[in-house]
Amino acid sequence: MVKTVSKNILQILIILIFNNFLAQQTPEKLPENPVNDTISRKDTVVVKKESLEDVLRTKADVQRRDFQKKMIYLNRNAQVKYQDMQIDADYISIDEQKNIMYARGKQDSLGKIIEPVITTQGGKIYETTEFQYNTKTRQAIAFNARTEENEGVIVANKTKKYNDSVFAMKRAIYTTDDYFIKKKDTAADYYLRASNIKLVKTRNKSSIISGPIQMYIEEVPTPLIMPFAILPFSDKRSAGILIPSFGERQDVGFFLNGLGYYQPIGEHFDLKVLADIYTKGSWNLRPEMNYIKKYRYSGNFSADVGTMVRGIKGLDNYGKTGTYRIAWRHTQDTKANPFLTFSASVDVVSTKFYNNTLNNNYILNQNVLNTQQNSTVTLTKRFLKLPVTITGTASYSQNFATGLSDLRLPQMNIAINQFYLFGSKTGVRSGLLENLTVNTGINLTNFVQTNEGELFKAAMWDKLQTGLKNNIALGTNTTVAKYFTFSLGANIDNALTTKTVDKFYDPIQNKVLTETNKGVSGYSTFSTTASLQTTLYGTKNFKKGSAIEAIRHMMTPSIGFTYSPDFGGSGFGYYRNYYDANGALTPYSIFEGGIIGSPSSGLVGALGFNIGNNVEMKVRSKKDSTGVKKIKLFESLNLSGNYNFAAKDHPFSIITVNGQSSFFNNKLSVNTSLSLDPYRIIYIPGQEAGIRTENFGHFSVQGFNVQMSYPLSSEIFGEKTDYSKKYSKKGEIRNENYYFDDDNYAHFDQAWTLNINANYAYTRSSASRTPTKLASVGLDGSLKLTPYWNINGSTHYDMVTQQLAYTRIGFSRDQRSFTINFNWVPFGQYKVYDFFIGIKANILSDALKYKDRSFTQPNAPF
């Protein structure tokens, strides 16, 4: 405890020294008048100066003037206005001889002040019990003055105003407690007390300078005592040094975290540079720039560059790793320009950045579990009179598992809005021709897959591919025989690329080699579809008075035929052959692995089917105003597949079944999918891969997935209790009502949430005998122990490995002026905790705080 207090006192002293250094100013001197009087004082008529330099306006319910003593007395609802000052009080006296105004607040029968004196000057409001002002010297003395400054308030037993800029206060306290400031509570939950405080005010800013100052929490003095304090107040941004936190760790040594400098740049920008320094060699540099222009745009740019050093140089445990992160967020206001929009979401990191154990932030926010990171910059241009949208994109996708990254720079898409090819003669479209629509566009892509070491180097540019693709989609539909919808469609693809491949078998190396050819090449493909769809309804009504009144089944069957030529034929030139190690002729596409894809091979003349289902049930319900309640048994249940008449083998496709439903008043959501192979698969002993035979009718399960989620909360289970009717005793804390039973136990609503997620997946194919299974249950939720205590957490249990995965437990406390947070990862690869307590107000948030955290260390117990 003593160590912690000493640590905090030392940190606050550093803060105050830096603030004192920044707050030093050269006092402004009043210019002396260098002009001398040329007229002798003997020849000058001296006019006696008036005691008042302006009109003194007074009003009160009762006014009395004593001419002999030159006194004015104002009683009840008294008010005085003089220059820029206004005084409102229950009693005011004005001594015209001594040039002194005295004001006192309203008293009760015992002489206690129950309503303060309100003094307004220069836009500031001061509350006092007694107030005295000298109109000649402009000095004032106030008792029990209450002055609001920036985010806080100062209350002093005695305040003396020397001039409009300097106020001296005795036995004063300062607090940022919002409830105390707004007079919702008569006692502050914390304050800083000093015997002497000086308030210095200028046109643009003000500051508090105090002697020895002590912190009190709930009226209890704490060991936190500082020899002096300087608190600057300003509505404008100002440059300054950012005070670091410090400590010692076994793995990295002594450290300073967050040492930096803040610098405003003009009206719309600011810059903050932070540094972390460790005595064993580790370091981090974190610049951050924020910018905003109202009604136009806002954004943030940040970077994190550093080196992590672990162990002792020369020993086996020594390691040195460089890490970096570059992030940029830009958002354009929707009102700025509807025809030209720009947005950016860039977050590029080194492969081991999130595993940097110099801090645990990335563990607690679960970034350390990321396997993929995506960055995108997008520029979109629209036109007022043209049905065209042009979108330019640059994207970067990182895969931390493989270490490879996909870069698309730039990517441009020109989309033409859908239009009808033929006009309507009657204004109402009917028939196939009038309903014929065209969708088309052009997509240009530059793509490369690279690793971190090759980024923007010659090796990356050598692998870069450029592709141009145009798609034209035609579609139309009409009603046939009143109940059927007949649709026709055609799809045309045209593609160009700068790279193709040649494959051949090398007997010396005993492997198939691939050579890349640079040069423009392309292909064109097309396909056509025709489909017929209708909707069928069926209802089963039950006996009157039964619990189930009816079941309705809606079925949407559709059949369609798709035709596509065999673009793998020699006449097109899109496919070639090579002889493998066994001398077998093996076909391949020259566009294989390219960014524009490969044209389909094999003639397609397939008849496809899809059957959609929706099943609802009507049940009797006393809670519903209609007396009937609808329950969805299946929101959707779809069965689909196709048969390819042109296929030489395996004409039937995989049969897929997808279902979605919800139960318990739509709270439990269930999504399922099932894949069935209609052909028998034979697995030969000793071989992992199987053989798909022509034996039809076995329908083996190739894939099954079910996902369930159920959100629970206190609102779902039971109605909210009206404690005011149940209990007679009542209390109030911070505008929250508490009710007490006969044993004086408090009762209040304890809100809670609990989200349950379950997932099961089964995958099997002819390529592998061993199926892949995944089964897990996840929980996350929160519980309010009291209106100001909140517990939250999440966990994940893998039922296959029978182990708990990432688990986090945390609690937070709203202490009115304080915030307390604790987060803990108790087990797993990353075991850390983080504790923080600090003042909410910005003026003291960096000074009065305490933070403690653990750090993951290699091969070290938690």
Description of the molecule:
This protein has 862 residues and is mainly beta. Among the domains are: 57-237, Lipopolysaccharide (LPS) transport protein A like domain (lipopolysaccharide transport protein A fold); 718-749, no CATH class. 6% of the residues lie in helices and 61% in strands. The chain has a 30-stranded antiparallel sheet that branches. The longest helix is centred in the N-terminal third of the chain and has 22 residues, at 2-23. The model is unreliable at 1-5, 13-48 and 858-862 (pLDDT under 50).
Figure out the total of helices.
7
Q: Per DSSP, what share of the residues sits in E-state strands of 2 or more residues?
A: over 45%
| Corresponding CATH superfamily of the domain at 57-237 | Lipopolysaccharide (LPS) transport protein A like domain
Q: CATH fold name of the domain at 57-237, please? A: lipopolysaccharide transport protein A fold
Integer-rounded radius of gyration:
40 Å
List keywords for this structure.
862 residues; mainly beta; lipopolysaccharide transport protein A fold; six-stranded antiparallel beta barrel; 7 helices; elongated; disordered C terminus
Secondary structure layout plus pairing:
Elements (H helix, E strand, L loop, with lengths): L1 H22 L32 E4 L2 E5 L4 E12 L2 E11 L4 E5 L1 E2 L5 E3 L1 E5 L2 E5 L1 E5 L5 E10 L2 E10 L4 E10 L2 H4 L8 E12 L3 E6 L2 E5 L2 E7 L2 E6 L5 E3 L2 E5 L3 E13 L3 E10 L4 E11 L3 E14 L8 E14 L7 E10 L11 H4 L7 E11 L5 E12 L4 E17 L10 H4 L2 E15 L6 H6 L1 E16 L3 E23 L4 E23 L2 E6 L6 E17 L10 E5 L5 E5 L14 E17 L7 E17 L10 E9 L4 E16 L6 E24 L9 H4 L2 E5 L2 E5 L5 E2 L4 E14 L2 E19 L2 E10 L4 E2 L3 E8 L2 E8 L6 E8 L2 H4 L3 E5 L9
Antiparallel strand pairs: 1-3, 2-3, 3-4, 4-5, 4-8, 5-10, 6-7, 8-9, 9-11, 10-11, 11-12, 12-13, 13-14, 14-15, 14-16, 15-18, 16-17, 19-21, 20-21, 21-22, 22-23, 23-24, 24-25, 25-26, 26-27, 27-28, 28-29, 29-30, 30-31, 31-32, 32-33, 33-35, 34-35, 35-38, 36-37, 38-39, 39-40, 40-41, 41-42, 42-46, ...
